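Example 3.2
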Amino acid sequence: MKKIVILTGAGISAESGLGTFRDAGGIWSQYDLENVATPAGFARNPSLVHGFYNARRANALAARPNAAHRALARLERDWPGEVILVTQNIDDLHERAGHARVIHMHGELMGATCAACGAHWEAPREMRAADPCPECGEPKTRPDVVWFGEMPYDPQFPK
């Protein structure tokens, strides 16, 4: 059987009402990315960073998958071979549309990670700078997203 690999980015979720980062009027025109999307910004002001991503998470939770998300999920379901969806998006709209196999190159907004020990878990709706890691107890929790200056996640393609 043939495999299909699909790559998506911010444009697919824009129709669902999620702002893109780089377009005219996009998120980066409203925020200084150095303050909210870099390890240095997190070190300076973790509360600001958590507030920024808490707002992004709330927007994503309020959004609904659109026709493009649903069409790609239908392709995955109906294709007799393997379909792998690789996305640069950090929202979960592909999963909510029905995709079973999504690789998030830039992390997941609905996830949390520990900057101290590297543990990963599902993020609460609101993260705070003082939240302890469930694994090591350190208050070093952050959104499970790739920031500027970090390498994209290594996709684990199924064999």
